[in-house]
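Tokens for chain A. Residues wanted.
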């Protein structure tokens, strides 16, 4: 069961979001990721982690939106997610944008209970 996690929903539409769940607390950071997507995304993740004094260890999971959405936004979030997976030895999960209607803890927990596809991030869905 996924308990503590980072969730990335960056698909190039208004209000890209990062969620962080730690010890029953859930924090959301919204941002507009138009320029320097990877730099901005990494910076926002680091700031969120530092702000809430979180220690990311191998018990954490990372959940990433695989689309549909903008090619460059999805590619950036997948790259960051894969980097976190490799560097911190996190579990990596993907979900489709249509599976998460609203970005809040209740809906994310419902998404998790339905089952996420672990390590099946090879086929993201891009909008043309």
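Reply:
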């Amino acid at each position: 069961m996924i308990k503590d996690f980072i969730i990335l929903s960056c698909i190039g539409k208004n209000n890209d979001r990062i969620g962080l769940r730690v010890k029953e607390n859930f924090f959301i950071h919204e941002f507009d990721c138009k320029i320097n997507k990877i730099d901005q995304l990494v910076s926002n993740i680091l700031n969120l982690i530092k702000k809430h004094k979180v220690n990311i260890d191998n018990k954490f999971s990372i959940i990433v939106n695989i689309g549909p959405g903008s090619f460059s936004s999805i590619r950036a979030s997948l790259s960051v997610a894969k980097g976190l997976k490799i560097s911190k030895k996190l579990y990596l999960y993907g979900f489709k944008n249509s599976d998460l209607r609203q970005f809040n803890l209740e809906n994310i927990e419902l998404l998790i209970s339905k089952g996420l596809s672990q390590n099946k991030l090879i086929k993201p869905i891009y909008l043309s």
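The chain has a mean pLDDT of 86. The two ends are 35 Å apart (CA to CA).
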